[in-house]
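Review box. Two proteins, two foldings.
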Amino acid sequence: MPILKRTRCALALSSVLALGACAYNEDLGRNQLLLVNNDSLAKASQDAWATTLSKGKVSRDAQANARVRAVGTRLVQAVGLANRPWEYVVFDDPTANAFVLPGGQVGVNTGLLAIVRNDDQLAAVIGHEIGHMTAQHAAERYSQAAASQLVIAGAQAAAGRVTSADNARALASLGGLGAQVGVLLPFSRKHELEADTLGVGYMVKAGYRASESVALWRLMAQNRTAGGAPPQFLSTHPSDETRIAALQALITARGWN
């Protein structure tokens, strides 16, 4: 098959795949590329959680674990998500971080608990993580990566017929970087802002103060390491300024002050 035709076929295949997997998400107000969903990732989620529990240092602080569980439970009950399993664990880690897996496993580090000043701010963190899960962001990121690799593989196949091995490897390297910086990382920033939006809505429904989400990110900004954050265009997270401005605009627009 001619090189140009092979490349066009690869691109056409990826386009058909993407169109076939597009689904409209009412909560997000946009279409999502979903080659898989949270249920499809359940086994991988359980395996990742088991590995995290075995390799990470689980906090023995019963009060801290109970606090995280209580805030998380209040949130999921308020937004009608208590009909599925949720797990909450505090990890003895000084990093100010939290995470969620597609199966509903939520981890919160002691470093983050040391920063938050009240349960409203903790609710902002956990609500944000729940937002990632309900928005199927992990499934969407997986789907984006798979679709990007399909396009890159097609370009590599074409390059192998018309260039030297060195040039083919260079093209592959550039293609991977372009997919990361041009597609995957910017979309990840969008995911973060979407999770902020969903999380604040969850906070309000659960009776927490929306304004404390802004206070939380101001505290996070103050506690950044001396090295600082990477430029926003090379980061998987929006800048603190972008995040705070978006939250303030949302809270004002919804009358949640």
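Next protein.
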Amino acid sequence: MLERIPESLGNNAARVVLVVDDEARMVRFIRMNLELEGFQVIGASDGVEALDQVRKRVPDLIVMDVMMPNLDGFETLRLLREFSTIPVILLSVKSEEDDKIQGLELGADDYITKPFSPRELSSRVEAVLRRADWPAPAPRTILTIDERLQIDFNRHQVLINGERVDLRPTEYRLLNHLIQNAGWVVPHDTLLAKVWGYEYRDETHYLRLYINYLRKKIEVEPSKPKYILTERGVGYRFASIVKDSVNSRELLPAPA
């Protein structure tokens, strides 16, 4: 009987995933399942070895345990983010929201609680890679929202008073989706599905955290936002924009 070849094999054949865990059994489990999906997998037993591997061969994705000796996953991620934006999925036996938020604040792209199924692992890996590869639509070149905020869609850049703001890819996609729907309320689950993937439609803490990130980076007063508005219990809305020239827009006042 012929063995079924995963449909994703062709797309994943050149993808390299670094798996970091001090449990050899877990590394073997993840390696076996990702290799069945066509990925190339390399392993590391702790954070120090992981950082060394990254400097030798930049992987497309890192799957890393949090609880490791010598250098745990959180500290490894903090050091990694000083020089790299490689997508990272953290693994942990802890399911508390505070732990997930800590990982996301350090720059993780996802957080999976142990134990997990091969299907969940594969789904999360594919979703994170899809987000990393997925360019946001660019219906116009530059959008001037007001005297201080501009969006350069071709370069995927946000400018405040002419200075580039450093946004993570997920932050940019979230902002872009809100702007494309300016004036309309976008429900929580819709934003999660569009920006993170359908698998994340119930992960509201991801959305809340990234909305806070964006507000801190683009709002004058993050606690009193004028761009990204909250519609309590429903979702978020980017302030209404009216056209005043070919490449320029201005905000309508937010309703009282």
